[in-house]
Design brief:
The protein has 356 residues and is mostly beta strands. The chain has two domains: 209 residues, no CATH class; 107 residues, Sandwich (Jelly Rolls), CATH 2.60.120. The protein is 10% helix and 52% strand. A nine-stranded antiparallel β-sheet has the order 5-4-3-1-13-14-17-22-21. The longest helix is centred in the C-terminal third of the chain and has 24 residues. The chain is globular.
Length: 356
């Protein structure tokens, strides 16, 4: 059974990504060697941060600003040595202020301050994670992978390992869910809920809290936007330090468009890869919020793809990339079958006319 901790303690406990206090871990690595899946320079941004809290319990305070006012968080791998990983975590608040922390931990032994932000790569169902959570229980809470599923993070379908935990607390329950990219071990999503209800002097009291962090940008894999055009699939891909949304391909306008969002005032970029058999530019036109941005972009190509690097200052920006040639309404591979069908229909009609 868990203790009923104060509100600030519970909140501090749940933010394992960026604002946690140093955590002690005492787990011994298993016989199977753990593998570090991240590399120096790997980066993940969490633009989907959500906190909901409600309570009528006397003395229960609302979440402090350092939790309720977060708008963006990210972490970058600075160094790796013999299982020990050092990361720089940045938290940006709605008022524009930010906090930077440099922490390290050994993901093969569980020692250090990383907690569950990064775990070994390529774990599977039943594998124990070398990290013990000590915030919630008197005894260290060991995590064991429940299974592997496919989920979409940073606009790409990824195989992720997950752990779901439900723990009893006095007058309620606490639920935690974690999702890590299987290939790299990076934390993709954390969901924490805490619900308490009880009756005192014939009055119902309650407290509920839901907190979530979700990865929306990374340089570890490309965002993939499949375009189905008359049965032909084209993949436009992007690497960006922004959250990408509202992707659209307009054949009539010979254009792709999308929105990029990130911490206001910070430098942003997007590297877009466009297949030439879908869209070509001679020349290309790049618009940022309706303003011609082409001269500020770097455009290169090979035989099959065009690569466009687009720099900008973060807020929420709309990007349009216009070409001068687009795949026709009926792709070349479909023209011959259509001609054959048309010829056959014409022949049938001609024969019918002759008979009449």
């Amino acid at each position: 059974m868990l203790k009923m901790y104060g509100k600030k303690t519970v909140l501090t406990a749940c933010v394992s990504l960026f604002l946690i206090l140093p955590m002690l871990s005492a787990m011994t690595a298993s016989a199977s060697p753990y593998v570090v899946g991240v590399k120096i320079g790997d980066w993940a941004g969490y633009g989907d941060i959500f906190l909901e809290w409600e309570s009528n319990i006397p003395g229960q305070e609302e979440p402090p600003p350092e939790f309720s006012n977060m708008s963006w968080a990210d972490m970058k791998v600075l160094d790796i040595f013999d299982g020990n990983i050092t990361v720089r975590s940045t938290t940006i608040y709605k008022n524009g202020t930010e906090r930077i922390d440099v922490t390290s931990g050994n993901i093969t032994s569980g020692e250090g301050e990383l907690s569950v932000s990064i775990i070994p790569s390529n774990l599977g169902a039943g594998d124990e994670i070398p990290a013990n959570l000590t915030w919630y229980t008197e005894e260290p809470l060991k995590l064991v992978i429940n299974g592997t599923i496919t989920r979409n993070y940073a606009n790409a379908n990824r195989e992720v390992n997950y752990v779901n935990i439900t723990l009893p607390v006095i007058y309620g329950t606490m639920n935690m869910s974690f999702y890590w990219d299987k290939n790299t071990g990076i934390l993709c999503e954390e969901i924490y809920s805490y619900v308490v209800s009880f009756t005192s002097n014939s009055k119902e009291y309650y407290m509920s809290m839901l907190m979530m962090f979700r990865m929306t940008a990374t340089n570890m894999w490309p965002a993939v936007f499949p375009i189905d055009w008359n049965g032909y699939i084209f993949n436009a891909t992007m690497i960006s330090n922004s959250s990408i949304s509202s992707f659209n391909f307009t054949q009539a306008e010979m254009e792709i468009s999308f929105n990029v969002t990130g911490p206001a005032g910070k430098a942003g970029y997007c590297n877009v890869t466009i297949p030439k058999d879908m869209l070509q530019g001679s020349p290309w036109t790049v618009l940022l919020n309706g303003t011609d941005w082409t001269t500020l972009c770097t455009i290169t190509e090979n035989d099959t793809h065009t690569f466009i690097h687009i720099p900008y200052t973060h807020s929420t920006n709309t990007i349009q990339i216009r070409g001068t040639w687009v795949i026709p309404e009926f792709p070349p591979a479909m023209i011959l079958p259509l001609l054959m069908i048309a010829t056959t229909v014409s022949a049938i009609l001609f024969r019918r006319r002759r008979k009449t």
